[in-house]
Every structure is written in C-alpha cells, then in structure tokens.
Amino acid sequence: MTLDPRHLLQLSVIIELGSFSLAAEQLHLTQPALSRNMKILEDRVGALLIDRSNKKVQATEVGRALAAQGHSIRMATNQASEHARDVSEGKAGLLRIGVPPMISEYLLSALITDFLKDNPNVTCVVTSTLMLDLIDKLELGQLDVVIGPLVLIDESRGLQAQQLWSDSVNIFCRKGHPLTQYAQVSTQQLRGEKWIIHPKRSFLRAQMDSYLISAGLTEIGVAIEVDSPISIIALVQSSNYLTMLPSLPVQSLVDAGQLCVVPFLQSDMPTRHAGLITRTTDMRTLLLDRFVSYLMQTCPGRMGSGLKPGA
Predict the structure, then answer these.
(1) Domain that holds residue 191
(2) Pairing of strands 221-225, 58-59
C-alpha cells in the first residue's frame, strides 16, 4: 500500500482546521478536488479517515494517526522551503574556510563566531594548518576560501586575492625580558640571544630568516624549532627566548602585558599583507559573497594598526 504524501498533508490541514472549505482555501485547491483526494486516501487505507456525520469535520482514530504523519510531512516541507530560500539568498549552507593557526586563534575565531550569530543556518568547517597546505586544498576544491598571507598567490594557478589588512612582523619576548629595559637594542645584543623558530615550510620562517640576515644576523642561536605558533607564544612567555611573529594576531597579548616587542630599530620590519584567497574558476556563491562582504566591513575596525617597538 503506497500512500501519496500530498494526501496525508492535506488530511492534516483538514483535521487541523476542522473544515473542508477552509482547508481547500489554504491548500489552493477546490473543495471537490480535496474531497476526491480524501476518498482516494481512504480507499488506499481501507478505512474511514473522516467522520462526515457531523457538521464539524472530525477524524477517526485511523485518521488522527495519519493526520499526525501528514503534519510531520507539512513541517518538513515548510522547513525545506525555508532552507532553500535561505540558501538562495546566501543565508544558509556550508562554508569551508582555511586559516593559518595564529590568525585562526587570535583574529578570525571571534569574527567567524559573530558571523554565525547573524547567520544561524550557516555551518562553517574551519581547517587550520600551514598556508602551503591550505593553498593546495583550495586548488583541489576542498576549501571555499583561505584567509592568510597573500605572498603565495599565483594567478597562473587560478587563484585571486582581496587584501583585508597589512601589518609588520616584529621580534617578541616575554614581559620583563632583560632586553625590554633598553630604548633601542643593537644587532650585537641580539647575537647573544636564543631564538624559537618556525618550521621550514612556514612563510613566517622564510620572512624571519630573510629579515634577520638583512639585519646582519646571518647566524642565530636556535633553541627550539616549533611547528605551532600557539606553542611558540607559550614558550616565549615562559622563557628568555626570542621569536618573530606578525603583530596584529598577538596585539591583544601585548596589550595584556603577556608579550613585549623588542625595540630593535636597526632595520625596517618586514610587512605582511593578508586577505582572502579564492579560486578564479569557482562560481562565487551568495553565501561566500556575504562572508567576504562581512570580513571586508569588519576586519579594519577589529584589527587596528601595527605595534610600536617597546610596547
């Protein structure tokens, strides 16, 4: 016995309103058509579903059971329609975001959370790893957008970028480090320090190596190589080791007195542009457009400006 789900839905409306005429009006059917559908449903079930002996429509026991199923179908249909509308308007769907660990931890987490508060029918899947790996995943279509440094963008690989912010990469130490007592630190003083460095495949490592060499530090004393920027911060906070980090992600830690910028002014600090990276071959969804627009409007106010040495 196969029942037409549309007939079950119609039955639920009839029972709910207690009237064939009102139900027909709500369902945009003629009353004869609705009555005919109920007769078909009763024939399929082999039992009366509606007691027609009274002026007010009343359901039989079997009718009430099937009307409950019809109500569930109606609710599911309404929800599906609402979801489809939200998706078409960019208010629902799946958003796959790739973000390097430090930007994810200290900048984007709050922004993504706020975006989801305003868009409760959106689901975000956030992947946090090195930029090289994120770009690979983006090229393979495993991510919708990457948010990070823009130096790795190659238009010949079908990538495009929108800048969100710029900041500098600075030398950091713990609060109370001996170097913080100086108004200006010399290259010679840095030669005597131990450093925590980033992994070789990291863009931060390349920037750090290039900058220190240009500043006259062709060799440094490496204490630890760590593949997690979050771990690097914890190690710096609990030791006398130095490291280099982008300033904006750790600005809140500096403001809270948990990190300090080493006042090394011998050479201009390297700058870093960061933003959104997408594939040129992808058709941008309305959801991605909404997210991009949200970040373009929100990031400048949230991220402020770079840090000053000695902060």
Answers:
(1) 168-271
(2) unpaired
